[in-house]
């Protein structure tokens, strides 16, 4: 690949790993709460309401919390220069993940996921993931999703099928191959985060949240290296 394009896979891959690790840890420790995969919370809510067994506040609050935080960061940063917005949101995400870790260590474990402090802790994680989605949507033009793996897997499958069929040639083929490679790395990153987060949770409990905090810290300097020019797949937009 062209060297100028080589740096735009690292940050989405790290952010995907962050989302996977945060999601699985919150799911295991906070009563089936997804911090990054809001669709999962909607499924849990629907299942509980239909069966009449609803008893979890976290999934109920996660959807409006996600929307409010994402709306706020969009409102604040949408008019800012992309580089500034990216830096600020990555720092803000790291702060919320640190607070997520700190609250978990200080007040956990949480035998009752519906307790006020457990719900508050979970919402810190949801806020961090909402900010990450804002980063991808606003400040990483052309980036694949770092949380919605169904979108990524679909894109990878379609792109590799087009490449195998020989449907695209020349510059278009290079563009599709680059997009497929970057998207596949994001999928691998998410799966890696899920596996690592689950293993760390088994041995470290709430201290396993230090892993996504570390990844968030790594994301900040990676954001400074994001290509100034939009990558070749930018015109297709990014789905978070």
Report the count of strand segments.
Answer: 0
- Rg, Cα atoms, Å: 18 Å
Order of H and E elements: HHHHHHHHH
Average residue-wise pLDDT:
87
Helical element count? Answer: 9
Q: Please give the share of residues in helix.
A: over 70%
Shape: globular
Class per helix and strand makeup: mainly alpha
Uncertain residue segments: 230-240
Beta-strand percentage range: under 5%
* Biggest sheet overview: none
Give an account of the 3D structure.
- The chain is globular.
- With 240 residues, it is mostly helical.
- The C terminus is likely disordered.
- The protein contains 9 helices and no strands.
- The longest helix is centred in the C-terminal third of the chain and has 35 residues.
- Helices cover 73% and strands 0% of the residues.
- The two termini are 25 Å apart.
